[in-house]
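Recap from last week: sequence in, structure out.
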Amino acid sequence: MKKKNKLGSSISSIEGTWKFDNNVAKVFDKHVNQSIPHYHEIQNYIASLSEWFMKDNTTIHDLGCSTGETIKKIINLNVTNNYKIIGYDTSRKMLDLAKKKLSNKKKNIQFKCVDVLKIKKFGKSNLFISILLFPFLNYNERKKIFKKIYNSLETGGAFICVEKIRSNSSDFEDIFNQIYFDFKLKKNLTEKEILKKAKSLRSSMNLYTEKKTLQLVKESKFKNCEVFFKCFNFLGYIAIK
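Predicted structure tokens:
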């Protein structure tokens, strides 16, 4: 029988797997800030970048929206254009929390409990957002998602993405991973929790170097791509059609 592991902030997983259960939603925001360097700032950067692509009557797609925190930050920009936001996630509990968090926002917001890989095509849009969804997709799945995003974007529209990546060399991979562990320790996660989290992700994550990650963007026919955030093994980039 596989053992259940505590991973911090009341989050747990079954050994050898990584899957959010129904108890995760209420502590997800705390957990992700314990686990991702500059996560709060990353969301602010994405909201700021979004303002350039929030055209009137456009739709914004947030792939893997979790508790809706990024959507909340975008809405708080108070852009007056008439736009719609659709948040996608496979966790109904996450979406329930997102709906509650955004219930007082007078904007056209929809949430869909669906695996984005199963969506045949998205509606026309000027902006897609994805924060840390791609590390859980293999290379072929990424290519399919990129194609769907590209086909749905209007010319001049953008895809804003944050990923976890591998270093170009084993030397830097070791250095950055150990600094990342130090970060988690400073965020009050224990050594045991950190190691068990890493073990639970073994069969779930698909990480690539920055070069290979951005090469896929180029192969997906995007006109321009620029890195707006990089911290050790985390990368944020924006691609324009």
